[in-house]
Amino acid sequence: MSENKTQNLIDSIKNKGKTLESEMSFFDHIDVLRKHLLRALSVIIVFTIGAFYYTDFIFNTIIMGPKNPSFWTYRMMCKLVEKYPSLGEEFCITKIDAKIINTEMAGQFTLQLNSCVMVGIILGIPYLLFEIWLFVKPALHDSERKSASGFVAFASFLFFLGLLFGYYIICPLSINFLTNFTVSPDIQNTFTIDSYLSSVMTLTLGSGIIFQLPVVIYILSKLGIMTPAFMRASRRYSTVLILIVAAIVTPTADPYTMLIVAMPLFLLYELSIYISASIEHSKNRALYGTKNAPRD
C-alpha cells in the first residue's frame, strides 16, 4: 500500500513538473510575442511622428481630397462622360455641396493627432505583418515556410491595393452621395469633422481589410476549414452578398457605380477559390503521390 502511495506521489510530481514546464513555455511565447509587437509599435510611432511633419499635405490633400470636385476620381468620371455620353451627365460630379464644421474646442488638435496616428498605422502595417511572420515562422515545417515565404509581401500588396481602391473608388462615390443626399430642401447638410474623418477612414481601411480575403482563405484552407468545393457551391450566394455590399457602399441609382465596386470583389473571390484549390491539390499530391492525386 505504501509503495502505491509512493508511486502516486512520484507520478504527481512528474505531472506537476510537466505542467509547470508547459506553463513556462506558454509564458515564454507570450513574452516573445510581446517583444515582436513592441518592435512593431515602435515603428508605427516613428511613422506617426514623421507624419506630423507632413500634416498639411496629409489633411488638405489626402483626407479632404474626396470632398474636392477636382479630385482625381471625379475628373476621370467626367472624362468618361465626355467619351461615353450614354453614361449621363449625373455621372460627372462637379459639385459637392456640404459644409464641414468643428464643434469641440480641441477638435482640430484631435483631428491632427488622429490623422497622424492613422497614417502611422497604415505605413506600419507591412512591418507589423513581418513581425507576426517572425513570431510564427519557428513553429512551421520547412515545406510550410517555403509555401508561406511570400506572406508579408502578398498580404501587404493586397492591403495597399484595397486601400487605394477604397480611397479612389468607394470613398469619393460614397461621400458624393451622402453629402448631396437630402430628404428635404429645408435641411442643410452640415457635417462635423469627426464624422467626415471617421467615414473616410472606415471606407478606406475597410477596403484594405476586405482585400485580405485571399490571405484568410489561404489560412483556412491550410487548416482544412475551407475547401474549393464549398466555395464553388456557395458562389451564387456570394454573388448576391457581394452585390448587396456594393449597393450599400455605393447607394447610387446607376448600376455602373455598383458594378465598379463589385467587380474587384468578384475577382478576389475567384482568386480565393484558386488559392484554396491549389492548397487542396498540394495536400492530395503529398498524400497520394503525384500520379494518384485526385483532381480538384
Model description:
With 296 residues, this protein is mainly α. Helices cover 75% and strands 2% of the residues. It contains eleven helices and two strands, in the order αααβαααβααααα. A two-stranded parallel ribbon has the order 1-2. The longest helix is centred in the first third of the chain and has 52 residues.
- How many helices? The count is 11
Low-confidence stretches: 16-24
Largest sheet: 2 strands, parallel
Indicate the overall shape. Answer: flat
Gyration radius, rounded: 26 Å
Number of strands: 2
Output the structural class: mainly alpha
**Strand order within the widest sheet?**
1-2
Beta content comes to under 5%
Fraction of residues in H or I helices: over 70%
Secondary-structure map:
Layout: H1 2-53, H2 55-63, H3 72-83, E1 99-101, H4 107-136, H5 142-147, H6 151-180, E2 190-192, H7 193-210, H8 213-222, H9 228-233, H10 235-249, H11 255-288
Parallel strand pairs: 1-2
What labels would you give this structure?
single chain; 296 residues; mainly alpha; 2% strand; flat
Q: What is this structure, in a nutshell?
A:
The chain is an all-alpha fold and 296 residues long.
